[in-house]
Fold each of these.
Amino acid sequence: MKIFYQSLFAILLVHISYAQNVGIGVTAPIEKLQVAGNIKADTVKPNVLKLTKDAAAGKVLTSDDAGNAKWQNSNAAATGNIGFGVWGDCGANGNITGYNPVADPDGATGDHSGGSVSISGNYAIIGSYLDDVGGNTNQGSASIYQYNDGGWVLMQKLTDANGGPNDLFGCSVSISGNFAIVGAYWDDAGTNADQGSVSVYQYDGSSWVLTEKLIDGTGAAGDFFGISVSISGNYLIVGSSGDDIGVNLNQGSVSIYRYDGRFWVLMQKLTDPAGASNDNFGFSTSISGNHAIAGAYFDEGTAGTGQGSASIFKYDGIEWILMQKLTDAAGAAGDWFGYCVSISGNYAIVGIPLSHVGSDADQGSANTYHYDGSSWVLMQKLIDGNGAPNDWFGHSVFISGSYVIVGTYLDDIGTSADQGSASIYLRMGLGWQKLQYVTDPGGNPGDSFGYSTSFDETTKRFIIGATGYGNFSGKTIFGKVN
């Protein structure tokens, strides 16, 4: 680009006579700089920057993975990379930095470290839900990292001192401020097998201390309490996707707690008033301020089993009320709409990992929504323009302010099958433009990079889990948007 600017400056010296408007190949320019024809930059990639004639208000210059630039409508499906950073790098992780892979130093084959991740400020938590603890197979663990001196350092490894085999502690994690939450949805509560539990930790300035272990006081065996968790300030939401509601087996529920300064107190247990057996309501959850969302990926909807749905609730100062039940109007049976969900302020995203894109079965997609003051309106359906069958785009989603990250954990990278990828989007007006298609430079076939994702808008740092790495011991990648 430096050569380009030097060449352009030389041309201007020849043709400028201190006129207000400058023309190259134009005798009477009507703009500050008007060029007739194409602009070519003498860089490593010839024609890496080409400005076409269809530029217009409301269009954004993007680049595909080959580095070719084009204009896109701000409300169109985003398939390119937004034009930030160095042009020649747009297709290869050019808009991100801070590559920092981490793995559990005590990790072993089959731990699935990175199966769940969460990041908030200078802290992050990583779940290893199949970690063997002592003699307990698949008891599970979670590790908390701190950003320090330009890198992520392991602070503490959390386990349940009263845990047992197959608890799956770390199946879900969330962190916010000085609180960290860990779900163990196969934990036995008394004689209730697999009822589930949630452990709450608080940082006291030197270590993360267990302050409370939550269970559903009205729970039963197989409820899977803790299969999903999300914390935002003084609010915490927990999913119980196997909860039986009346005669509806596995309809599911969610429980919302509020921190009163000493304890996390149950505010309300929510269900889908139109729910049915096997909906798995609460399989995914997210909370942000006074808004919460719960996914029911096996809801029949209008298309059939597994079309899926997601319900958004609002706290009105007295109770949590259902605002709206979301479904994909173009959905089909088996799409799994609501497999993962995330909400931030007036924006929400729902993953649909098994949706078909054109003729590509199970390529996957994700729907973004905006609250316009009266209802939640579909903003944009995100897809990978270079996707393929069985990618599972939308297996993980996370929204934080103006950023969205979507995981595609079965994406083939070149000849590297199921290595996985993630896509970061930036909100532009009422649309989302792809900021970066992210791959692991140290990736391998079967890594499942993108299995889990999280983003923090304040620091612009993100975290991506790769559970398949090292015979499923797993690893996690930290990064930062430039």
Amino acid sequence: MTRESDTGARPSSDAATDEDDPTLVLPDEIRTQLCEHARAGTPEEICGILGGTFDSDRSQVSSAYPATNVADTPRTRYRIDPEEQLECFERLEATGEEIVGFYHSHPNGPSRPSETDVEAATWPDRSYVIVSLEPFAVGSWRWRSSGAVDTRSESGGYFERERIVS
């Protein structure tokens, strides 16, 4: 597998390309940080929290906070350690940042939400960035609590693709 750091190449993006779609501004250095975290955590899924400036249609990431995956089956699921999540939320509040979203990896799957991801999503309008290692790609999705597009959960929510820009 070719690695970003080996060639300077960026991972492909599964994000939508329509200019009307929601957008996540993800600086290259933070994208690289997420990819390195995903590689280091293989074969388990990694996870973390994204901070910055939140907007329901265009958010700006300015920080990434890696967290411990405490899922019972971390090779196929993620669950952010609740204590670390609370500490991170307090840090974000103290620095004036907002919760932009969350990230995790799919070591052997695509950079789109799995059925498990759909069932676990709870933060409306936040970004869920997924780093896939096989194939190497980064995708981002907005969790919407109502409506009808892409992927649905029994609760009526769905993930909507979003563009990633640097």
Amino acid sequence: MLRRPATTLSITAEDIASYEDRRAREAMLRERQVLLEAQQAQQQQRVLLQQQQQQHAQAQPQQRQLQQLSSPQLQQRHARHLEAGMAAEDPEDGEEEEDDETHSERQQELLRRQQEMMRAQRGRGAAAGLQTTPTPGDGGRGGRSREERIGVGRRGR
């Protein structure tokens, strides 16, 4: 029975650098996706809040009209109508609005922090020059660029 020689794989520094670059791009895409999702959620909450404000603004004139009516029968009829409308709504709306407001404030704070982090990373990236791979746990490589890691332009070393 014939045996073939063992297959050997050679991984170059360029392969490692391209892998790291791809992982960095994927991480940046994930961050962007999270940021977009947060922005969309914030936009949806704004729309819901505006709709709720419009509903409350429409309900206030009805209450004023009720106060201005002089006939007790009309007041009773109007009161029954408003109570029926309020009964259809969730009785804990006030608490949910407070929760929505605190939730939207948290979302805005989270979004603001993410934007600050992105700005800070952009600022550091411009200062670092040729560094293309952010490596927080860089394994002792320091702040070397991709070209420095793979040895481009080094002859005789």
